[in-house]
Amino acid sequence: MTEKERIFLASPHMSDEGYEMEYIKEAFETNWIAPLGANVTNFEKEICQKIGCKAAVALSSGTAAMHLALKLLNVKEGDLIFCQDLTFSATANPIMYERAKPVFIDSDRETWNMSPEALTRAFEKYEAIGQKPKAVVIVHLYGLAADMDEITRICKKYDTPIIEDAAESLGTIYKDKMTGTFGDYSILSFNGNKIITSSGGGMLLCNTAKAGDDAKKTLFWATQARDQARYYQHSELGYNYRMSNIVAGIGRGQLKVLDERVKKKRQIYSVYQEAFADVPDITMMPIHDGIEKSNCWLSCMVLADDSKVTPLDVQLALEADNIEARHIWKPMHMQPFFAECDYIDNGDIGQWLFEQGVCLPSDTKMTERDMSRIIKIIKDLWK
Ligand SMILES: *Cc1c(COP(=O)(O)O)cnc(C)c1O
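That is the input. Now the predicted structure with pyridoxal-5'-phosphate docked in place:
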């Protein structure tokens, strides 16, 4: 028996026009095969234009960008960081690189992202013992926008900067502004499964009043912290975090098709939403039209608590047909590595989403037939 063609959750999708290869070719022809060059500089410029941020630094990963964002806020050993609980570990790991203390904040049922109510309780709890976080790290999971109006209001009240993890939400618009412009610092990822990819890479976006200086400092750290001298001199700890000029070429080509990819991802979401409208146990992830225009990076669904079909049943049925699906992220407070950290709950929404949720195949190369194949397998589980 021949195996059915694999359908991926989300896989790299290069432009039909071959933009990526043109930029790579240019890098070869000019011999800028290095972690600097025209593609790197132009990729930063083009992202700034697209998103509307003040300055950007192209780095080797989104994780590296998160690390340097924390360093820009002078995060040191023992400092508190309020961090969204429901996310990928890459959001939280850099907090540990600096030996700071994450406090995980539960999600909101309405947005799946940080609950403003739980965030307020976290501020109050630590204020009572004379402590304040150095930063609040929010995430726009699966391309759904966090409640930025409320979160910004609360962070202003407590005079605490925001780091925005927009790794999954490039192209998502919240009230007329792109995600990536709400944090003092924001991060993007161009990993292989993201809405656009450079094969691997990330970017730190600066939206502060001193954005230019912040970008300069980031670049300094990312390129081994070399002092201005005629020899190799170092007054600070450096990192090798810069993006390669080849990688940046792929990123530039991909940026040209970002709008197309968002359009397709949104269409995928609509098809699922329509198809599952008559399955009472299935609720698609909440998108608030009029407030946000989500990039729908992954289309996710939650199953009713009393559904006889479980998320695992869905995954196994799809896997048997060579189709990839996944659990929703497992919250950080449930991770063995972060077991000692404080957690501010909001009715354990994150845990509920982890237990009842499924990320459906959201690959932009899927055809109508592929989607019918997926939908039929899922609906048959209820027969
Ligand atoms: C992918 C991702 C990251 C990390 O990006 P990398 O480029 O893989 O290091 C960070 N946060 C979230 C929410 C992500 O999905």
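The two ends are 26 Å apart (CA to CA).
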